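Q: Predict the bound structure with PRP.
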Amino acid sequence: MGEPLTFADPSIDRILVDEAQIRQRLEDVGRDVTADYARQGVHLVGILKGSLVVMADLMRVLTIPTTVDFLAVSGYGPDAGRSGAVRVMKDLDQDIEGRPVLVVEDVIDTGLTLNYILRTLRTRHPASLDVFTLLDKPTHRLVDLGIRYVGFTIPDCFVVGYGLDYQEQFRNLPYIATLKSVEPDG
Ligand code: PRP
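A: Predicted complex:
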């Protein structure tokens, strides 16, 4: 193994959650998911694009039958108000009726996006519908979602890396970092 990669972008402020912390926490969560879904297996539904990195790592620590699908939605934008209505840009490939679904998110902030997604998925009658989020940012939560698995609860700060972006940059960072200063993400 060589030296760990470093990312020398001057806009990176500090590392909030490092690679070792992410790996350790995913192993712990993976053990819980493996135990909770041991009987029936699990169908993971990742919300693109932010979930792509954590999905890849979470699925590899599960030791039960696991299937994967992805949903892509647009941001809800200023006109949606508190409905959180989002546009489905890419629907699931597979039917979820009767299946044990675990939604995989990178971050939950207001909760509006996920609330809308869960309402939509419930109409398809999965056997169960639960949520794993890598990051929980509860400061501005507007809807109570009953999140079953949380990686890390973090304060109200703008974070990038490990799937999360600022204007589509930084998703490839192997850790979660704060930025020095950000303009509102468009
Ligand atoms: C992020 C995240 C959630 C949403 C959370 O997605 O993946 O879907 O924002 O915000 P909320 O709880 O306030 O609704 P984003 O719009 O950044 O898209 P991306 O995953 O493609 O980066």
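A: The first helix runs from residue 19 to 36.
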